[in-house]
Amino acid sequence: MAFLKASSPHGHAANSTNQFMRLVILATLPGVAVLTYFFGFGTLVNILWASVVALSCEALILSIRKRPVGFYLNDGSALVTAFLIGIALPPYAPWWLVLVGTAFAIVICKQLYGGMGYNPFNPAMAAYVVLLISFPVQMTSWAAPVALVDGTVPTLIEAFKLNFGLMPAFDGITMATPLDVMKQSKGLSIDELWAANPQFGHVGGLGWEWVNIAFLAGGLYLLYKKVFTWHAPVAMLSALALMAAIFYDGGSSNSGGSPLYHLTTGATMFAAFFIITDPVTSAVSLRGRVIYGALIGILVYIIRTWGNYPDAFAFSVLLMNFAAPFIDTVSQPRTYGHNKGAK
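and the corresponding structure tokens:
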């Protein structure tokens, strides 16, 4: 009897990478819509410009490497990186900031290591850290919530002109984020902080509460579609909430904020479902993903509360990207047919 000789993998889904990337982009849309509603059109301009830069840089490097440009552009990975960078950067970031960050993510963090699947660090987060260290003023100029700047919110065309320096900046459209205010106002209790600063909403930042809910909805959609497993996001959110609960003293001037505050402020849900779930730079085994996610949650709280950077996700993710290979080594599941502890 003759058997068909074929190498693994025996199961194959055409364009599976492209399909997954499209799902990720689709899942970001609720968060982008809510960001636009509360903070104006700057995020949309960021995403559109970052997409142009990402696809152009990818095509250029693929041509230099003599790789099929159309084939690799079609996988959608460059477009996903552009979306993540566009969302992560301040809404009215200058055009050159988006250009430098996106080009660094594609050329240095991705293609320099061999392309998708070979990069040891998350490209979007590596680019974010480089920009934050190099251009701290531009990276901390976040848009004020629309509710606090009635009548001065730029239209889509005006947002485009602002980002590309074609018109003077609007007065009063930027302000410190709730995480910045929390870090700088150590002399006030939580109640006093909420009363003195309009940036705060019910439990988190004004607008940011709904932004996090929207990214949570997108993340749950990706879980439903089985783009990734629940292990890393749930472990990260649980560890962050647990750390906040342990060190929350009821709201004194030394308080780091309640668990609900940390879960609904900043980039928490965006990072939990769209950043740390990157299959290339995170741990591989299910146990390893739990460890990976939990350690990111712990690092986020430590840096937010006692470090110099308010949101902390980019640094936490990059540190754990370093540790992911070691986590994989110590968390490998038992080989089928072998007893626990067997070599």
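(Above: one complete record from the training split.) Residues 1-8 have pLDDT under 50 and may be disordered.
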